[in-house]
Design a protein that fits this description.
Its cofactor is Zn(2+). By secondary structure, the protein is α+β, with helices and mostly antiparallel strands. The chain is built from 10 helices and 10 strands. β9 and β10 form a beta hairpin. The longest helix has 27 residues.
């Protein structure tokens, strides 16, 4: 890992959801939420301390067109990585969570390699490791800067996090961002960091299913909410603010446009909330262009992220301007550039 690729602690379930669940009078809701908040807070602190100390140099892996995956079983404790249970090329095992994690890592590797010619997370063949069965009914999944860590869910609020390929693709894309623009995890640059992971998490799911933009559900975490929580998903790129609305979680707070931008000190300045704005801009672009969203819309976003022009502290407007310039560089001053400018205009972000 290079000195510039500084990891942050990124979870798929944001603190504002757990904050609301922790207030419930029902112990089935507040107990796992409080445990998750306490545990995630501790891990965030450890990550900040590790970042402040600096990162040790590492030797890049040999680039290959094949993934190098290892799945570990954490055995319901929080010591990582756990015991090795599945390696690259091995036959499927008896544990469905292990097999699902292995498949999702492979799908993410294939997507970045075949679509954007990026070899693994770091671009140089980084091995992909994941630990499943992390913690006791742990209600989250995260990228820790080196590997995927995946909880089983408590079965009432959230189900097994290996069920959602877009969740795993989202978290692994935090690693891609870490090794490219390394967007600072606060305010608008942090919301862009989260949005990029949502965009490519959705595209990885669409690619694995062979879906066009109009066929996709544009949801993150569909099927993740358990029987105790009604709702479609964690987030919606198509319609931010509509993914869930229930007494336990409240209403999805994501805005779709800058008119409803949320100013808050929580969640690193609302990185999981205001990400709805660039998420929606991408959805508008992808559906306007049609076809497979990874081919043109996704290429514009990926190139903007990875070509070295995006500053770590970029705000929405800076990112928007770069996507417009990238569209012109890739496709000429035609439909793609016009669609990019229109999409950002629709969400209230100036792109020119």
């Amino acid at each position: 890992m290079s000195a510039s690729a500084e990891p942050v602690f990124c979870t798929i379930i944001p603190p504002h959801i757990f904050d609301r669940l922790a207030e419930s009078e029902d112990p089935l809701h507040h107990e796992p939420a409080r445990r998750a908040l306490e545990h995630d807070g501790l891990l965030r602190t450890r990550r900040r301390v590790a970042a402040a100390r600096g990162l040790p140099p590492t030797t890049p892996a040999a680039a290959s067109d094949n993934p190098n995956r290892t799945i570990y079983d954490a055995h319901h404790v929080t010591t990582l990585p756990g015991s090795e249970v599945h390696t690259e090329g091995a036959t499927p095992c008896k544990d469905p969570a292990v097999n699902r994690a292995y498949t999702a890592l492979g799908a993410t590797f294939d997507f970045y390699l075949k679509v954007y010619k990026r070899c693994s997370i770091d671009g140089t063949g980084m091995p992909l490791n994941a630990s499943v069965h992390y913690g006791d009914k742990y209600d989250n999944a995260f990228w820790d800067g080196d590997q995927m860590v995946i909880g089983d869910g408590d079965g009432t609020m959230f189900l097994d996090f290996t069920n959602c390929i877009d969740v795993i693709g989202h978290e692994l894309t935090h690693g891609v961002t870490q090794y490219t623009a390394n967007l600072e995890y606060y305010g608008q640059s942090g919301a862009l960091n989260e949005s990029v992971s949502d965009v490519f998490g959705s595209l990885i799911k669409q690619y694995s299913l062979g879906q066009t933009a109009d066929q996709a559900d544009w949801l993150i975490g569909a099927g993740l909410l358990g029987p105790g929580l009604s709702g479609a998903a964690l987030r919606s790129l198509k319609a931010p603010g509509t993914a869930y609305d229930n007494p336990q979680m409240g209403k999805d707070p994501q805005p779709a446009t800058m008119d409803d931008y949320v100013k808050t000190p929580r969640d690193n300045g609302g990185v999981h909330i205001n990400s709805g704005i660039p998420n929606h801009a991408f959805y508008l672009l992808a559906t306007a262009l049609g076809g497979h969203a990874w081919e043109r819309a996704g290429k514009i976003w990926y190139t903007t992220l990875a070509d070295g022009s995006l500053a770590p502290d970029a705000d929405f407007a800076a990112f928007a301007r770069l996507t417009a310039a990238t569209a012109t560089n890739l496709f000429g001053d035609g439909d793609e550039t016009k669609a990019v400018l229109k999409a950002w205009s629709q969400v209230g972000v100036p792109a020119s």
